[in-house]
Amino acid sequence: MIWLDTLVQGILLGGLYALFATGLSLIFGVMRLVNLAHGDFSILAAFLAVALVQALGVNPLVALLLVVPVMGALGYGLQRVVLNRLLGRGILPAVLVTFGLSIVIQNGLLETFSADSRRLNPGGIETASLALGGGLAVGWFSLLTFVTALVLLAGLQLLIGRTALGRAFRAASDDGATAALMGIDNGRLYALAMALSLAIVAIAGIALGIRTTFTFASGPDRLLFAFEAVIIGGLGSLWGTLVGGVILGVAQTTGARLSPGWGVLTGHLVFLAVLLLRPSGLFAPSRRVD
Amino acid sequence: MTDTSRVRVERTTRASQVGLLAGLGVVVALAAVPRLGDSGVMRAIIEFITLLVLAQMWNLLAGYAGLVSIGQQAFVGLGGYALIVLADDLGLNPFVAVPLAGLVATMFALATATLVFRFSGGYFAVGTWAVAEVYRLLVANTTALGRGTGRTLKAVFPLARETRELGTYALAVGLGAAAIIAVYLALRSRLGLGLMAVRDSEPASRSLGVDVFRTKLVVYLVAAFGTGTTGALIYLNLLRISPDAAFSINWTAYTIFIVVIGGLGTLEGPIVGTAVFFLLREALSDYGSWYMILLGALAIGAMLRFPQGLWGLVAERWDIRVFPVQRRVRTDVSGGRR
What we know:
The complex is a heterodimer.
Chain A: H1 2-31, H2 38-56, H3 60-81, H4 91-113, E1 129-133, E2 136-139, H5 140-162, H6 164-174, H7 176-181, H8 186-211, H9 219-233, H10 238-258, H11 263-277
Antiparallel strand pairs in A: 1-2
Chain B: E1 7-10, H1 14-36, H2 39-64, H3 73-89, H4 94-116, H5 121-140, E2 151-152, H6 161-188, H7 190-200, H8 202-207, H9 212-238, E3 240-241, H10 243-246, H11 249-262, H12 268-283, H13 290-305, H14 309-318, E4 328-331
């Protein structure tokens, strides 16, 4: 029973990791950009929620409704003003600039909010649990996070598969230069992709902040987990990202059950094993199209 | 056509001759410092040299081989812990153990390469980081290595403080000089030519017969050796090691900022960058982590506006090369036609 519980917790944790991973997967798919500040943006969103809760006294879930559009706008601006200049210059500038951003955000958060660990408190839902029978219970909030990940992924799949914007994303992903020839404004498109990425990761960050404590330095680990989820699932597959997140989550909870210090390490080891045995991931499509 | 007998290929420049003299002067000055007896100055110089060597190694990887690693902190930590194990547990002389610790780090680098070389580009970068995290967690979960609390280097306790300080200082100066000379000579050699070709275009260099994989692997191992030895030196100086400090991403953050601001792909750049780092840190020492924010902003600005770095700006404007690694074709135009 204890292992079934571990499995279920791992699956639900996977939903949270999928939320982190989706934005990363999206921008890599559309513009081949690895955003090393991805995790730090999620923590930035969590701290913004903390600030809003302190200033306005609202529930964190309400703060989320305000933070998500702000983060989306930030992503749009960042891409248009800074990151668009780096495209076509190889990976080094993008890696270095986003790495620099990561350090700047972390230290900025440290200076603004101090090194104290924080938590977002939505007033009880994070501790409520749902009994599933047979002695098994799951947290309502974990379930909510997982369902949110499912809904967002389904929505993104619809966006990419059925809308003009999605068509533009796919075109830019397949061949950016030709997409520009077809009249697509790549600059604006990439900015929209980044806006979407940061909006989703803001949700992930706030969900994390409700679930556990966080500090200014919590960003890099989120990036690593997101990256691992994407790689395990396979680049180019959105649903693969969910499966990757679930596998990572289960690996971590299983490892933690064996020995408390081994949770995160087990996740890393599973990731490295996938990398050794099946480098393209478990669900990589044969064509880079979703 | 220009008369070919008037074409010369040369390396040495006026600046490099001046630089050679200046370099010798620096070494002489560094040798004189211990006589002044100020251990604070010695410690500062040791810190400068360790950051400089870390930067030179990262510059070698990213600026010459095109390998952008954000996991070099793995080798800082591995070198540091190898020192503790070699000196405390195996009873070796701690000063001798420093380069040996570098060798240990190189062995781990070989294992690491089998994994991370499957990636390229941005994913190579994150892969190296993931591996560094694995090393950190493995060390933090090992009781013999002190787990999360870490360990103290006890092998130096029998030594007098002055002896230890002098020994560490001498080792640091030796390491710094050796690193710069080694990188300089390597870049002037066939390996260096192959490296610069790989940096500029992998497919083209492959077509010319450069063994790209082997070249990159050699550079990765050499950088790991340099980084590991420096890590051992750092903890010989600090005496106390813990996983979170030794495997901290800050080592990579400092070196990346130093190299990018100073000048990626040049030997002089990291020297300039390290100087800027120290200046900024001293100037902003009362303002907490603002110097890191400023440093990060400067690095971002550098990548956007002057990717050749501060030294690159100087070198381009005044055509100065203190460490000439490229060959220049000089023609005398006084004679034949252009």
